[in-house]
Write a structure and sequence with these properties.
By secondary structure, the protein is an alpha+beta fold. It has helices at residues 3-9, 24-34, 54-62, 69-72, 99-113, 117-141, 154-160, 191-194, and strands at residues 46-51, 75-82, 145-149, 167-176. The relative contact order is 0.22.
Length: 200
């Protein structure tokens, strides 16, 4: 499947086949593509929690508006952000670069992020969002459907998955085989309403 087709046919699916099991090879392939997503300074802020335990899935569903995708999808991925990735041995993100490039980038990291907690969080969340889109498009190419999800008490979810300090839950992505066609698209806004040239 080409990228354009994947984008055009990707939909937020709400009903999955609860009996379908993804293979370990498929899951590994998906996650190997997800970690190629872009991140600022190559921080790779994302941490992917693959929720497989059915009891844990039920507990997450209970604090997420009882959305059925959480328990019926073949795979539930809780995408979390390491907000402090920028200061965790940042030279390791550039280990394959030449020494002069690595030193310059690491210096810029500290200068840009130090003392700017909102920027740190925003950057980590952007990274997670891009990884979620990569997951969904890769899944589509592999013959799977997906659903990006929020509508959850993320503080409770964080407790359930034992999220470490300095991390936040960004979103869920449910993946699996759809059991029914999605509704027609609700309606895209026209380009002339959402696209501007050189400002508003």
């Amino acid at each position: 499947m080409d990228v354009r087709t994947a984008i055009e046919t990707r939909r937020a699916i709400k009903q999955f086949d609860p009996g379908h099991v993804m293979t370990e090879q498929e899951i590994d392939a998906l996650m190997s593509l997800a970690v190629l997503s872009p991140t600022a300074f190559n921080f790779q802020h994302w941490r992917f929690v693959l929720v497989r335990n059915p009891v844990l899935r039920e507990a997450i569903r209970a604090v997420s508006w009882m959305q059925p995708q959480i328990t019926e999808a073949s795979l539930l991925v809780v995408i979390c952000a390491d907000v402090n990735a920028w200061q965790k041995e940042p030279d390791r993100y550039w280990r394959n670069a030449s020494a002069d490039v690595r030193e310059g980038v690491v210096a810029a990291i500290g200068e840009y992020y130090r003392g700017r907690p909102q920027t740190q969080r925003d950057e980590a969340m952007r990274s997670c969002d891009m990884a979620a889109q990569t997951l969904m498009l890769a899944a589509k190419e592999m013959g799977y459907d997906s659903c990006p999800m929020d509508l959850a008490d993320f503080d409770e979810v964080a407790k359930l998955i034992r999220l470490p300090e300095g991390h936040v839950v960004s979103m869920f992505v449910a993946l699996g085989k759809r059991v029914r066609e999605p509704w027609p698209r609700a309606g895209q806004l026209p380009l002339d309403e959402v696209v501007r040239v050189d400002g508003f």
